[in-house]
Amino acid sequence: MKKQVLVSVDRGETRVALMEATGSPGAADEKPETKGRGRTKKVQMADGFRVAELYFERRGSRSIVGNIYKGKVDNVLPGLEAAFVDFGLDKNGFLHVDEIVIPGVEIPRRGRGGGGGKDGTPGTKISDLLKPGQEIIVQVVKDPLKSKGARLSMELTIAGRYMVYTPTGEGIGVSKRLDDKERERLRKEVKALEMPSGGAIVRTAAHGAKRQDFEREALYLHKLHEVLDSRVEETPAPGLVFQEADLAVRVVRDIFSAHFERAIVDDEKQHQRLVSFFARTAPELVERVELWQDSTPLFEAYGVEKTIDGLFSKRVDLPSGGYLIIEYTEALTVIDVNSGSYVGRGKGARLEDVITKTNLEAAEEVVNQLRLRDIGGIIVIDFIDMARARNRDAVMKIFRKSLDEDRTKTFTAEISKLGLVEMTRQNVTEGVREVMSTTCPTCDGEGVIRSEATIAIEFERQLRDLAGRATRGVEAFLVRMHPAVSSEFTGHGARVLHQLETETGVFFHFTGTEGLPLDHFDVVKKGKNDEILEEAVPFKAGDEVLVQIVEPHMYNVDDAVAKIDGYVISVEGAGRYVGVKRLVRIEEAGRTSAVAVLVPGQEEPVEDPKPKARPTRQRATAKPKASEVDDEEVDAADVAVALEDDGEAEGSDEDEAVDSKPRRRGRRGGRRRSASKAAD
């Protein structure tokens, strides 16, 4: 499979994308041109590639995996068979007994469950190996994740292009990820390789390497280890002794091989750094490193930006119409497979065939998402239940074949009778999603918050408590809360508010903006009702306000409605301006709403909105008030919009003054009626 590496460098971060060929014809099948050492010619975008893996590194939060530190043992816990080591970070690192290496001391490996050596004899206790205050050399094998500190190891490794040098190891091994034929060839290449000390492991990236490549790199790694030893002597504990390469060099070093067509870099300094690295380690690959000089950003040209945006979506669509739902939790990640709109092809489609095809597509896409999002830890995949064992085997075959492309260590159990597949994937660093996101301050990471109705019910209890503790002379309260919550009291004719005021004998007025949290509640002022009402009403008759017309009026197609922080303004004659900003003049202002007219002389919008359909009139079960019916001709549909009883909408004296003011607007009484209803 042909591959490419894209490296994008910005001021704040470095991003690396691994692209894999999809098999579609295009420029991906063409051999790239060569033009001297580290080409800087203009690179054309290749077709037929998809984003397989993404890596992010921020300037202030580089990964510390691979860094070597001189640390000091802070605490030894025999019960955990582990020690906590101060190596210079805010949080101590975790060192398990299995990761301890002391020259000249044989330590039986016991695994995470404790116990003794292979022969069943009790193993060496960690308290016999390490003491508090002891200085040791450790390497970070896993970044600090969430509340956990970094994982440490005393078995040091220094990564090169083709080999990983182990100063405390012996012999030379070959990666098991290579096929048998290539492994056998590499064994012959390194059979008589002289290692001054320690051992080495031939990497997967060494596919196709020759003996001279290994000889050159062995000498380089040994010299690097000598420099490391000298720094250990000079560095006080705790302190950094050796720092891993930056993200671009690290990723390209680990994965770039003969299978890769090219590495494209959009930063000149980073391009020169990669050219210099390959000139020392793999000169034959220098010509494949290219500098992106197109005016279009590199990640945008290859569609990587769109892929990054999709990482925040829980839903991933499958080709046939099914989809995946990916749910993240603290303990594990759950991936649910759904058939969605896929119902099979042809009249003879069977349910088992539909399910199997969906699961086969999902098996491949699940692995794609694991790699793309770098999901680690425990993972549970809920495939759709399949009746036949051979279909389950086919799904698992595709699933494991797809996992072969994943460089991260995984362990997969068989599919259960419930259609569940349990697996683990090594979690070394934070994934792209974790790097780019933060916990929501509103839901605190829960993903849900209390609804406006729930909060309003709770606030109603607090309002009743306020009224019960009100001293003599307090007639009203001005309460600040989110408009979406206060509308639960003032909406639908303000029935809830009027009932509350009738029961408590106290008036409540509201203020607040959309910027407030939904659960915000505080009392701004209390006192006489007239004073509180004057402060609560945001506008007065005659005020001119620039508003956004948001929706047609419910009862009159010629009118429209604007909202400012939950305060409703009915604008006469604005039906054709929905979605447009207009300057209006307030004619009547009530507690929760107002009636306004358009200020004449304004320019018409460039494109008039499409005419709105006349809204369906609502039906009611009671007759309207007498004051709400105009003396002019009124049809039955106009009269049918009313309150359920004559007393429900009665509010303060100020409201009644607005509602009872006679206004004639033509042959129908709908406008005056709807305006008074809004002002209520």
Element layout with pairings:
Layout: E1 3-9, E2 13-21, E3 49-58, E4 68-77, E5 82-86, E6 93-96, H1 126-129, E7 135-142, E8 151-153, E9 158-159, E10 163-166, E11 172-174, H2 180-189, E12 199-202, H3 211-234, E13 239-242, H4 247-255, E14 260-265, H5 268-281, E15 289-291, H6 298-301, H7 304-310, E16 315-317, E17 323-328, E18 332-338, H8 351-373, E19 377-382, H9 389-403, E20 410-412, E21 420-425, H10 432-436, H11 452-468, E22 476-480, H12 483-490, H13 495-504, E23 507-511, E24 522-527, H14 529-536, E25 544-552, E26 560-564, E27 567-572, E28 581-589, E29 593-598, H15 636-639, H16 653-659, H17 670-679
Parallel strand pairs: 1-14, 11-12, 14-15, 18-19, 22-23, 27-29
Antiparallel strand pairs: 1-2, 2-3, 4-5, 4-7, 4-13, 5-6, 7-8, 9-10, 10-12, 16-17, 17-18, 19-21, 20-21, 22-24, 25-26, 25-28, 26-27, 28-29
Helix pairs in contact: 8-9, 11-12
Q: Any overview of this molecule?
A:
With 680 residues, this protein is of the alpha+beta class. It is 26% helix and 24% strand. It is built from 17 helices and 29 strands. Helix 8 (351-373) runs parallel beside helix 9 (389-403). The longest helix is centred in the first third of the chain and has 24 residues, at 211-234. The relative contact order is 0.07.
List keywords for this structure.
680 residues; alpha+beta; 17 helices; 29 strands; disordered C terminus
Approximately what portion of the residues adopt beta-strand conformation? 15-25%
Could you give a short account of the major beta sheet? 6 strands, antiparallel
What's the mean pLDDT score? 81
Shape label: elongated
* Assembly level: single chain
- Radius of gyration, taken over Cα atoms and rounded to an integer in Å: 36 Å
